[in-house]
């Protein structure tokens, strides 16, 4: 997947617009951050990209593939970190990753699970039930679960939630790896330290409307744009 195009994208609930005529494009090898205050439409937008919520008007094109076709046939090409971990509490961390590896039809699920456990620093707790994990441990495993199948489109909704500084730094390193691998990465976060030097473009939403869509790399640029347009 090279590009996701949003064209006059709207999502309404009755007479209330959560998104209103949003037009932009997301590109492979680029990390796009979405910022905005509460109720700005950030989660609605990322849910539509994840094919969990449908547009009311406008369109989303995954390359040349329509939203409806992509939702039916290609949802497995998405990796999604949301507020719901999608982990099974009664299984261990290792068993969760092996389950998802098998669900995606990956070869050698045990080896893949082990590699990701090491990558997110969860090797020592791998065989404990997820129900015993701290919030930060669950978040680390959630990130591994979302990336285990090497998705083309990666959606992060507050990926550093519950993480310590080491975990935050590791997320930054993962973002750089995903960019280098040519993935399309979309990120919602309130942690501006994660954004600094880790993003290529910044989108700002305000009351469902796109008010800013430009390149932004440093925390100073991001803070300035947020103060003016959020």
What does this structure look like?
With about 230 residues, the chain is of the alpha/beta class. It has a single domain, classed as P-loop containing nucleotide triphosphate hydrolases (Rossmann fold). It contains eight helices and ten strands. The strands form two sheets. The chain has a six-stranded mixed β-sheet with strand order 6-7-8-3-9-10, sandwiched between helices. A hairpin with a 2-residue loop joins strand 9 and strand 10. Helix 3 packs across helix 4. It is globular. The two termini are about 30 Å apart.
Largest sheet: 6 strands, mixed
N/C terminus separation? 30 Å
SS field, number of helical segments:
8
Per CATH, the superfamily is P-loop containing nucleotide triphosphate hydrolases
CATH topology: Rossmann fold
The residue fraction in helices comes out at 25-40%
* Uncertain parts: none
**CATH architecture tag:** 3-Layer(aba) Sandwich
Keywords:
230 residues, alpha/beta, Rossmann fold, 4-stranded antiparallel sheet, 8 helices, 28% strand, globular
Reconstruct the topology from this structure.
Layout lengths: L2 E11 L2 E12 L2 E6 L6 H8 L7 E6 L2 E2 H7 L4 E4 L11 H11 L5 H11 L15 H13 L5 E5 L7 H16 L3 E5 L3 H4 L5 E6 L2 E7 L3 H11 L1
Parallel strand pairs: 3-8, 3-9, 6-7, 7-8
Antiparallel strand pairs: 1-2, 1-4, 4-5, 9-10
Short synopsis of the structure:
It is built from 8 helices and 10 strands.
């Amino acid at each position: 997947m090279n590009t996701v195009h949003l064209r006059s994208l709207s999502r309404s609930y009755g007479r209330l617009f959560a998104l209103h005529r949003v037009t932009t494009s997301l590109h492979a090898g680029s990390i796009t951050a979405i910022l905005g205050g509460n109720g700005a439409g950030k989660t609605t937008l990322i849910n539509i990209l994840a094919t969990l919520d449908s547009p009311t008007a406008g369109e989303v094109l995954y390359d040349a593939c329509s939203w409806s076709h992509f939702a039916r046939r290609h949802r497995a090409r998405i990796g999604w970190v949301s507020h719901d971990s999608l982990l099974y509490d009664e299984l261990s961390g290792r068993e969760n990753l092996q389950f998802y590896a098998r669900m995606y039809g990956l070869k050698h699920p045990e080896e893949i699970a082990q590699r990701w456990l090491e990558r997110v620093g969860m090797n020592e707790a791998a065989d404990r039930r997820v129900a015993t994990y701290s919030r930060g441990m669950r978040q680390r495993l959630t990130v591994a679960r979302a990336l285990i199948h090497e998705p083309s489109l990666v959606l992060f909704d507050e990926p550093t939630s519950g993480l310590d500084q080491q975990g935050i730094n590791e997320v930054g390193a993962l973002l750089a790896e995903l960019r280098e691998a040519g993935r399309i990465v979309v990120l919602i976060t309130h942690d501006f330290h994660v954004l600094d030097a880790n993003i290529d473009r910044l989108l700002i939403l305000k009351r469902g409307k796109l008010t800013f869509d430009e390149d932004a790399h440093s925390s100073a640029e991001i803070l300035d744009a947020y103060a003016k347009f959020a």
